[in-house]
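Inverse folding, one chain.
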């Protein structure tokens, strides 16, 4: 545990159970959760292999597995386990299962050559989705659920996305694919803004230049936007986000990194604002996201700037921390030589 206690080690290959599958990992995204574990800022069960944005090729299936075969190209859910019997599981929300464990945090994850999980936690990608994009399905499924099913974003909805990390750009893509108007608000100019424009951001506004609220009000006839997707993890982002909403607007919180944040609760009540914590996904959101990917309506591959071998994990983590790249993927099947 603790900074400096993350290292690359030789470990035995995972063994599967009769309802399990073993995957040769071809891509595993570095997520902010991995960085939080790296800095010991959230709980986890050490020793554990990190990485929960996993795709790869099935190399072994258990005797009771149906519908998945060796050679299938798949992505894995981030569930280490859910019970299927508690009220949340029964409601189709295993993310909130009372006994849930998480891949790459409680049980071994995908920063390894092989990864084993239950067959029911696997999504078959088909052959129109590449494996690097496949590693993005975990955050994509979650973002699709939150934006479309929670916030009700659809054609004509006006949305502010706050921040320019990978989750912001995913939110931008999904909202644009749904036909929404999207204003990207960020603290200062970053390299990601060029990509954000390419992905269809209708406006980009910078907090350090001032006047963001006035601009948003101008663009919305003085009403504010229906939805703010806060991805920056900064309390200033939350405070500003609330003020950009129209009455009855929805503030979606996407980061796991918020420090204690003062919010003007009287303002929330007076304006009927809803604050939503983003987590989990549903079967319907997954189908929607897979359809968007297969049909090329969204191209999540564009968010990936580097694919590195596992031995370069420190470089990958450092790049993520500098926010120098939208998304960094580690490919444990690659050796150093063809870097
Ligand atoms: Zn994650
Ligand atoms: Zn459960």
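Residues assigned per position:
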């Amino acid at each position: 545990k603790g900074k400096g206690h993350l290292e690359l080690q030789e470990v035995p290959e995972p063994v599967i159970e009769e309802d399990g599958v073993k995957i040769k990992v071809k891509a595993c995204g570095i997520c902010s959760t991995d960085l939080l574990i790296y800095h010991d800022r959230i709980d986890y069960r050490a020793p554990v292999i990190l990485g929960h944005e996993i795709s790869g090729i099935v190399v072994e299936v258990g005797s009771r597995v149906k519908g998945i075969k060796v050679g299938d190209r798949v992505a894995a859910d981030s569930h280490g386990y859910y019970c299927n019997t508690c009220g949340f599981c029964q409601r189709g929300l295993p993310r909130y299962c009372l006994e849930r464990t998480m891949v790459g945090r409680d049980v071994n994850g995908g920063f390894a050559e092989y990864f084993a999980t239950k067959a029911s936690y696997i999504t078959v990608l088909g052959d129109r989705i590449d494996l690097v994009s496949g590693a993005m399905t975990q955050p994509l499924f979650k973002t699709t659920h939150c934006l479309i099913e929670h916030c009700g974003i659809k054609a004509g909805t006006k949305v502010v996305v706050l921040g320019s990390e990978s989750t912001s750009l995913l939110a931008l893509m999904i909202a644009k694919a749904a036909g929404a108007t999207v204003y990207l608000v960020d603290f200062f100019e970053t390299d990601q803004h060029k990509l954000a424009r390419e992905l269809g951001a209708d406006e980009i506004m910078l907090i350090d230049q001032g006047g963001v609220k006035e601009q948003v009000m101008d663009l919305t006839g003085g009403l504010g936007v229906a939805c703010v997707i806060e991805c920056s993890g900064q309390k200033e982002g939350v405070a500003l986000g609330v003020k950009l909403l129209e009455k009855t607007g929805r503030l979606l919180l996407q980061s796991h990194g918020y420090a204690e944040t003062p919010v003007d609760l009287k303002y929330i009540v007076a304006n009927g604002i809803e604050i939503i914590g983003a987590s989990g996904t549903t079967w319907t959101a997954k189908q929607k996201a897979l359809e968007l990917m297969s049909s090329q309506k969204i191209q999540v591959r564009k968010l990936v700037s580097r694919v590195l071998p596992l031995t370069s994990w420190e470089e990958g983590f450092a790049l993520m921390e500098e926010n120098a790249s939208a998304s960094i993927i580690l490919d444990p099947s690659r050796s150093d030589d063809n870097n």
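The two ends are 29 Å apart (CA to CA). The CA atoms of residues 305 and 325 lie 6 Å apart.
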